[in-house]
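## retry 2 of 3
previous attempt timed out at serialization; input unchanged, resubmitting
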Amino acid sequence: MQILDAERESKIWPLFRLGFRVFFLGGALFATLAMAIWALTLSGAPLLPGITNPIWWHAHEMIFGFGLAIVAGFVLTAIQNWTGIPGIRSWPLALVAGLWLLPRLLMPLRGELNLLVMVLDLLWLPLVAGMLARPIIQIKQWRNLFFVPLLAFFTLLNALSYYAAFGHNWLLAERVFITAVLALTALLAVMGGRVIPFFTSRATNTEKPQPIAWLEKLTLGALWLSTLGWLLLPRTALFNGLLALILLTAAIGNLARLARWNSRLTLKIPLLWILHLGYLFIPLGLLAMAAALQQWGITVSLASHWLTAGALAAVILGMIARVSLGHSGRPLEIGRSMVVAFALIIVAALLRSLLPLLAPGMTVIAYHGSALAWILAFGLFCWIYWPVLTRPRVDGRPG
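## retry succeeded, writing output
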C-alpha cells in the first residue's frame, strides 16, 4: 500500500472503508430495532402510524431491509477479493448506504404507499448492482456476474411487493415475499457451498470435500427452479404437486451436500457449528414448504419461517461474525457472549417455526419468545462488533 493510499484511507471514516462495515452493522441494528417494533406492534403499540398493513411491513423489511442489506455488504466486500480491484468506499459507499437507510426510516411514518419511499427503496439495489458490474466486466470475470441480474431480480420483486401493497393484494404480496425468500435461500446455498466446506477444512485441518458436479447442478437447479415456479406457476393441484416435488428434490440435495461437509468436526468451533446448523434449516424449510403446498398440516407462512428465522438468520449471524473479524485483521476467535448470541438465534428459529406446529395454542407465546431471542442475538452482535466495524483494521491495512 502506498503512502498516498494510506493518507487517503485515513481520511475515510472507518465505517465507510468497505461494504461489510456499514451494511453488516446497519443491517444488524435494523434487524434488532425492526423486530422490537414488530413484537410491540403485535401487542397493540401504535409504532407504525403510516403503515396500512403491518404484516406486509414486517415481511418486506425483514427481506428487503435486513436480508438484502447483508447481501449487499457481503458482495461489496467480496468483489475486491474476486477481482483484485479495490472495493467501493468513502462517499459512494455512504451514498448507497443512505439510500438503503432512508426508506427504512421513512416507511413507518409515511407508509408503504408513499411515492418517495418507493422510489428511494427501488434505487439502492440497482446502484449496488452497478458497483459490482464495473470491476467484474473490467477483468471479464463472468462467473460472478450472476449477482448483477440477481440483484435486478430482487429489485423487480421489491417493485412487485409495492404494487401488491398499492392494490391491497395480500395473495400477490405473499407470493412475491416467498419468492424472495426462496431466492435468498438459493443464494445462501450457492455461497454456502463455496465457503462452508472451505472454512471447515481450514479450521479442522482436514481435506476439503470436492463438490459432486451432478449433485450441485441438481440441487441448485431445483432450488432456482422452485423460486421461479413459486412466482409464475398457477396455484392448481397439479402445479402445486409439481412444485412440491421440485422443493423435495432441492431439500434432499441440500441435505446430501451438508452431509459431506464434516459437520461432526465443528461441535467445538462456534464459528463453524452455527453455519452448519443454520444450513440444516434449508432442507428442513424446503420440506416444510413442500408440505404446505400439499396442505399437510402446515401453512405457507409457518413453513417459510424455517427458512427466514432459521436458515437465513442463523447463517447470516454466523457469516457476519466471521467475515467482520477476518476483514478487520482480527483472529477468528469469539467470546462467550457471541456464542450465547448463536444459541439465541437457534432458539428464536425453533420457537418461531417449530413451537406453533407442535402446540398451536402457544403460537402467541412462540411469536414473542422468538422475537425476544432474535432481538437479544442481534443486539449482542451489535454490542460486541460495534468497535470492530467502526474502527480501523488492527493490522493497519486498508479496508
